[in-house]
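Pasting two entries for a bug report.
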Amino acid sequence: MKTIQVVAAVIIKNKKILIARRKNSMCGNPGWEFPGGKVEQGETSQQCLVREIKEEFDVLIDVGNFIAESKLKIKNKIIHLAAYEAVVLSGIITPTEHEEIAFVIPDELLNYDLLPADVPIAKEIIRDCSENF
């Protein structure tokens, strides 16, 4: 079974976290996610996040600590999602591939229809929010 390495940025601004809603996802359905993308060959997770967030939002980020990971089986693939803290260094967040964005407090994350791989990440953020936020 093929494993696809995917990374997500948990972009924190004013104690709120950026989530974005796609029209379609790897799962085939629309939903909210922590933005990011597939790691390309020869690329680190951090390099991937910087590239993907620049492409998707036209901002430069600094990638911080690893937060959590999840694995999700979809058809004949396993999606391995790793999430990292990130902060915007420059630019104004301008979505190019998402229909909508929102900055939410950690306790509100599960009020959104998150994509399945993002739900365990959100739960970990909520568990740790008193320490990190």
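Entry 2 (this is the one that rendered wrong in the viewer):
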Amino acid sequence: MKESHAVVSQRGARRWQRGHPWIFRSDVVRAPAAPPGAVPVRDQQGRELGWALWSPVSEISLRLLDRDPGARIDEAWWHGRLRRSLERRAPLAGVADAFRLVHGEGDGLPSLVVDRFDRWLVAQFLSAGIEAFRGEIVSALRALTGADGALARNDASVRSREGLERAVEPLWGEVPQEVAVREHDVRFLAAPHTGQKTGAFLDQRENRVLAGSVARGRALDVFSYHGSFALHLARRAESVTAVDSSAQALARASQNAALNELHNITLVEADAFEFLRAQEQAGERYDTIVLDPPAFAKNKPSLEGAVRGYREVNLRAMRLLAPGGMLYTASCSYHLTKARFLEMLQDAAADSGRRIVLRALTGQPLDHPEVLTVPETGYLKGALLEAD
């Protein structure tokens, strides 16, 4: 008789015991005779370890859901876990109407992402195990949020590794192509159907406010994308130059500037490296600079090249700072650790010929929780620097 539970190696069991929810295929001693979904898990001594999401073709075979072997992973369970996740976001309601409701493993809901954009939700079901509970999750979200509509942005490449189709499809109601959302004193347009990730980048919200709070004089926003940092800078700075290589992204940035009635933002379509190099050669100076590049390190093998790229743009920016100028710089590359990020900044500062002072270190906001025992939940790191 085939068993419906999974048996994992001692190494896999220790991984759970040390607080990491993933067990890889190589540590599954006996696979459950079950379709994707939730399965009970035991170690080789027969000890019950709890329940996990089961993905038969994935390298990450099991994702811990509940340590209680007696738990029932039914609609009530999903409703309770999602309710707790939403309750953690309560402090954000007064400052924004766009934020992450579920941050996967960071909220004990592995491979599930849910973002809110005003009255609409965008979800991603990123494993075969979580996909099996789509109905229960949608039902709970609908009851808990009262959202007018929800969209599944299941076009992420990781779904292919789970044996799942990739598609963008409605979950309920109608979600607009564009949604104007509020972030503190700034508004911007999100694109739930076509924008990157789920329609907008929400993880830099508090860091944008920080950069805006120190903005003055002549400001520069490099890798501007839709101008989210530029909008905050423009409320205090005399002028802002927003640089991005995508004309389409800058067109959205122009819309966002108009939405906020900001007329001191100049949009420049250019390669960031070439732009910074040319500005340095021309002897330009800026009082406030923001560097928010995309993830240069997509995987471990690309890390060293990525570090060189981060170091170059930060070195150029440091040299462009006017005396007393402020630089907010960030990296969203998971493979670039906090320690390596700081080491890169130290190297850039040493080569800049400037005395660079560290004013603040930043990370992820409340709605993107980073679990200390799950490094994959943390990827964003930033620093506020001042040049003498």
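Dev reply: Rendering is fixed now. As a check, the viewer should reflect this: The mean pLDDT is 96.
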